[in-house]
Structure formats: C-alpha cells, structure tokens
Design a protein that fits this description.
By secondary structure, the chain is mainly α. The chain is 92% helix and 0% strand. It is rod-shaped, with a radius of gyration of 21 Å. The two termini are 33 Å apart. Keywords: Membrane, Transmembrane, Transmembrane helix.
C-alpha cells in the first residue's frame, strides 16, 4: 500500500470514529430526553385536575422537546 492510500485509509477511519462518537452522543441525549419527558408527564399528570389540563401539559412538553432537540442537534453539527 502506498503512502497516499494509507493516508486516505487513516482519514476514513478518523471520519468513521467521529461519526460513531456523534451517534453515541445523540443516542445518549435521546435517552436523557426520553426520561425527562416521561418524568415531566408523570408530574403533569399528578398535578392536573382534568383531561383538558393534561392535554395542555402535553402540548407544552412537545414544544419544549422540539426546541431542545433542535438546539442539541444543531450544536452537534
């Protein structure tokens, strides 16, 4: 194998490692977010008095989730 092919192979390996690392970070963030959403839902359900309030609570959770997801994925590049 000549030097340019070795450099290309090393660059590809580094790129793959970076992508795998980002994928692991995203999976970890998704687990953290899922736990947060479930905990928020349980808390919201405990403090609501009727289904209308619960529906409003879900809407706020969804807005919060979408806003944070966009910011997190944007920062990961």
């Amino acid at each position: 194998m000549n030097e340019s092919m070795m450099n290309m192979a090393r660059d590809l390996e580094e790129s793959l490692y970076e992508r795998e690392t980002k994928a692991e970070q995203i999976r970890a963030l998704e687990l953290i977010e899922r736990d947060g959403i479930e905990e928020t839902y349980r808390t919201t359900k405990r403090i609501t008095k009727n289904d209308d309030e619960l529906f409003f609570g879900w809407g706020m959770i969804l807005i919060f989730y979408l806003k944070n997801n966009f910011n997190i994925y944007w920062s990961l590049g």
